Amino acid sequence: MLKKEAPYKFSLWMLAWPIFIEQFLQFLLGAVDTLMVSHLSDDAVAVVGFSNQLFNALTTLFVTVASGAGILIAQKIGSAKEEEARTVGIIGLKVTALIGLILSVVLVAFPGPIAQILQLPDELLSLGETYISIVGGGMILTALIAVLSTEIRSTGNTKAPMLIAVGMNLIHIGLNYCFIFGKLGFPQVGLAGVGVSTVTSRTLACIVLFIIFLNAFCRKINFKDLRLFDRKLFKEIMDIGWPLGVNSASWFFSQLVIFSFLAMLGAKELAARTYMNTLESFCFLLGFSVALALQIQVAHLFGGGRTKEAYKASYKALAIGLPLVTLNALILVFCGRSLLGLFTDDPVILNIAESLLWLNMLLQPGKMLNMALGNSLNAVGDARYTMTVSLIVMWIVAVCGSYLLGVSAAWGITAIYSCMIADEYTRGVFSFVRWRARKRLRIKEQELEREAKQQSWTGGGGGGKPAGAVFSAE
Asked: How would you write the chain as a 3-class SS string?
């Protein structure tokens, strides 16, 4: 029975398409959010875009645990250690929830000072304080959604998070409509209503995800099992997770700093970048879905000792992802002006955003290279390498370059965007060279050879493939 089910769960396509639907709905949520908020004002859009960069940066504090737990779960399932995978899931949930709770308290208590420290323009401070306190107060919900979705996907079930994303998006869009426009008897409360809508939809999503999580592993999780804690497994989670967390934090905080540079240029540049973020998301949705599915697949294959298939899987994913993101970016070049017109009619903002569309054609293939090969390196436990490269390249090329060329030299948003492109390709080349070297894969192969020799000496043998070998990589 296992041999029939597992290829379905762990093939790249069957992992990727539900992830794409989920990510597309998240993109749709962001686009509709931006579209609806744009009916309030361009200032409100700038606040949402700025605040979301802050929230994304802070999520890295719990993504450290969630990502490490997700990769380790896939590895444990690949090596047929189902009970350990179950325990890893419980540990990841508890630690992530604690981090999310701490962040919620901080954001509710200090929204104004946080906005000021991050250089939000004075005219946006009042709106920013309101939005940060409401949505930031729900960071524990964001943490729970992140860890539960990641762990459920890592078991091979990518459909459940997708279906929950459908429901969450529908509820959020419906409540946005009611709060922004005062429909169906709801008060018309503007940007504060968007925050309430966000928290409400995420609360409902958390409840359903938690119910699915309880049944996601080989043995149902009972509430008394939530007390489980294994120091050895937690150390394994953190060995994988902390470099991932630093890597993610490096990217998100660098983006936050870059957004503060844009805020120095002016509110219109900040709004233009927010609108471009929305359009750019469309370009790499399929590519990102393939890369995320690839991470699960490579971790699973690696855990099962199928190193050659894991190595080849990355190039197959690149062969799919690169054409997809390039085609999507090309479509955006020709349709971008019309799409931007849905969000704003300010000619200055439109001209700024439109000027970035061709640069986006260069940006997206670099992002795909990073996503595929970086995720592959992380999946086999080489996350410290990607972390080191990110810390050095990202802050020198993207951040320092953006300030020197975009702000200090006064070349503006085009220079900042160009530095972001240079950063993506530089890190992509480093990841490509590292993956070609097969360092972690060779170490795994040597370990398997030693285990095989020990079994032959002790008469254990078995002569079969590793436990994970029943799963398909196609």
From this structure: CHHHHHHHHHCHHHHHHHHHHHHHHHHHHHHHHHHHHHCCCHHHHHHHHHHHHHHHHHHHHHHHHHHHHHHHHHHHHHCCCHHHHHHHHHHHHHHHHHHHHHHHHHHHHCHHHHHHHCCCCHHHHHHHHHHHHHHHCCHHHHHHHHHHHHHHHHCCCCHHHHHHHHHHHHHHHHHHHHHHHCCCCCCCCHHHHHHHHHHHHHHHHHHHHHHHHHCCCCCCCCHHHHHCCCHHHHHHHHHHHHHHHHHHHHHHHHHHHHHHHHHHHCHHHHHHHHHHHHHHHHHCHHHHHHHHHHHHHHHHHHHCCCHHHHHHHHHHHHHHHHHHHHHHHHHHHHHHHHHHCCCCCCHHHHHHHHHCHHHHHHHHHHHHHHHHHHHHHHHCCCHHHHHHHHHHHHHHHHHHHHHHHHHHCCCHHHHHHHHHHHHHHHHHHHHHHHHHHCHHHHHHHHHHHHHHHHHHHHCCCCCCCCHHHHCCCC
Kindly list the domain boundaries of the chain, sorted by start residue: 2-450
For residue range 302-334, list pLDDT tens digits in order.
888 888 988 999 999 999 889 888 888 888 888
pLDDT single digits (tens) 201-252: 889 999 999 999 998 888 888 888 888 888 888 888 888 888 887 887 788 7
Q: What is the pTM of this model?
A: 0.73
